[in-house]
Amino acid sequence: MEQPPATTYQVDGAEIRTRRKELGMSQAECAASARIARPYLSQIENGTRRHLRPPTYKALRTTLQIPQDDSRLLA
Q: What is the pLDDT along the chain (75 residues), one digit of tens a residue?
């Protein structure tokens, strides 16, 4: 039986920060590219926010150049 799509994704904020820095992006650049607010990205990276809706997770994953089948941003 196929599982339904996730309603939210629990993410690893430290891994998101690490990947962003590997790409040489500031929080502001990353947030703008993913179309989210910089304070929201800061909350994600600091672990204050851990659950992302699928469109937000996809936008952030795309911005960070993470393939769809790569789960390293997930907690």
A: 566 666 899 999 999 999 999 999 999 999 999 999 999 999 999 999 999 999 999 999 999 999 999 999 998
Under 8 Å CB-to-CB from 16, ≥6 apart: which residues?
A: 41, 44, 45, 60, 64, 73
- The residue type at 51: H
pTM for the whole structure = 0.87
H or E element: which one contains 70?
none
Give the containing element (helix H, strand E) for 71.
none
Distance of CA 1 to the CA centre of its chain: 28
Question: Which token pair is 34?
Answer: 């993913």
